[in-house]
Amino acid sequence: MIDIANQYAVKIDYQKDGKLLETMILFSPDIKIIKNIRIKYENTGFSKEIENIIENDQTEISYIQINYLKHEIFAFRSITSHYELFYYEQKILEKGYEVERDIIITDHIINMLSYLPVSKRSLCIEGICDVFLYQHSYGKETYIKNIYRLGHGELLSYQENKISVQIVQTLELGKYDLKKEQGADVLENSLREACQKMQKKESINTLSGGIDSTLTHIIMGNPHSISGSYEYPKFLCEKEYAQEAARLLHANHVVYDISMKDYMSYMIKTVKHYGLSVYNMTAQIIHHVLAECVEQEHMFVSELAGAVYGLELRTPYTKEQAEKYSFFDNYNYANVNSSIARWEDVQKISNIFGKTMIDKQLTKRNDYVLNRLKGFDTYDKSSDNYLQLGHLMYWFTNNGVSVLEQTEMVFKKTISALFSARKVVEEFLSLELHERYKNEQYGEKPYAKQLLEKLLPTYDVKKKKLGGSLPRTYMVTEGPMAGYFRKHKIPDFVDKSLYDIILAPTWETSWCVKYLIMYSVWYENVMCCEVEKIPSKFQINLE
Fold this sequence. Notes:
Elements: E1 2-4, E2 10-16, E3 19-27, H1 31-44, H2 48-55, E4 62-67, E5 72-77, E6 86-94, E7 97-106, H3 109-113, H4 125-134, E8 147-149, E9 154-159, E10 162-167, E11 171-172, H5 183-198, E12 203-206, H6 211-220, E13 225-230, H7 236-249, E14 253-258, H8 263-274, H9 283-293, E15 298-301, H10 305-309, H11 315-321, H12 333-337, H13 343-353, H14 355-370, E16 373-374, H15 383-397, H16 400-409, E17 414-417, H17 422-428, E18 438-439, E19 443-444, H18 446-455, H19 472-477, H20 484-487, H21 499-503, H22 510-527, E20 538-540
Parallel strand pairs: 1-7, 11-16, 12-13, 12-15, 13-14, 15-17
Antiparallel strand pairs: 1-20, 2-3, 3-4, 4-5, 5-9, 6-7, 6-8, 9-10, 18-19
Helix pairs in contact: 1-2, 4-13, 5-17, 5-18, 6-18, 8-22, 9-16, 11-15, 13-14, 14-15
């Protein structure tokens, strides 16, 4: 069974002598690529020529290919694609013996869960642990046992009732000869080319007012812009940044205010639509509100920009410790320092999941990224190279764009990020490594700041952006999440010796407590309930 909800997915059929032989379901932001593949596919079916088009695509692609005669399915997610595909191998038993296997492939976790009765759902503790460590479950595991996602650059094959998955595409460092090019010029040309391929007439920009979203706005050609803001004093800096940037850009900008008293009801609503727990306290809930309220069907976000060209990732610590560990050691400082959780938090997470599980997941993430890189020099133990690996880890395992796409899909909308375009990433990774992420003059994101300084001279690129975030300690001690476990059951995987800490959270434990609450909201409202299926755009059964 194949069940697709994304309204922007395209279905192409190959018929011969009036008989349907093959079907391809294609996800891509590039209309020209879709047209080109359609013309060739309708004439020949899935061919080597189409494979080459996909391999050389400069943005991002996912697809499902069905061969009805051979009863085969192939599913692919390109190395930078945010279009997720989930799969589940269904074993059909009679009198306790397996008699048949079938596969379900969907593009939304809610629709996958609709095929799985509550009684047959069980937890995948590795996927849950990943969220506590990294804020996202990024790789094969989701929260639900035996429901898997396709990873970056992976091809799934379903042949003779058996599933196999392998990495067939990687991200290439140093792919382009750009050593003598100016970084800001490369970035501008690359972003403009990606925007030309990805932007639609109805596109709207989510403008936070920081470097990344302001650059995206300019490259898009000053479209309408929106942002969300929580009615909480410490979050208002985000609203002020957005309004100031909109003023400098002369942008038609609208802010959607979210009341803190409605926060938990918004979280529950978001979880029910997304199918997994929210991935942070701010962004995903804001995007749920925006997707529900805004008429435009295509949003641009600047997610992953920092992972491409300039998050600090605790640089001083990395520089100090860089040469002490191999890149293959799960405690190498690129891996440890680019955890969303601080190292102190990792120690506390170990109290819940155990050190063995933490080590296993750290190793798994390290390998996930290294296995997807071509041309990465594992012998170069310089702090610059450790910083580079940290950025690439953040890029591959911060599943933010994919999560927002899942949120938008519920409202028949879609999302794009210029920094999901393969060529944007590979061109940046072809620039000289030293000062790529940080330099003396500009600090973080030097090339982006140089470019913005050129394109919008009135923008002060050196001002510190405080960031829009809800303080987690306040949220779990005084705010809308406070006292949650006085009314709700503490998750079963938490040892009872930790109950007192969870019931009376402090600054030191608030990281773990906020994720336990997010998990619990999901468990109670999704895992233990029948779900409301998203209407299918395409539904195909091989039988």
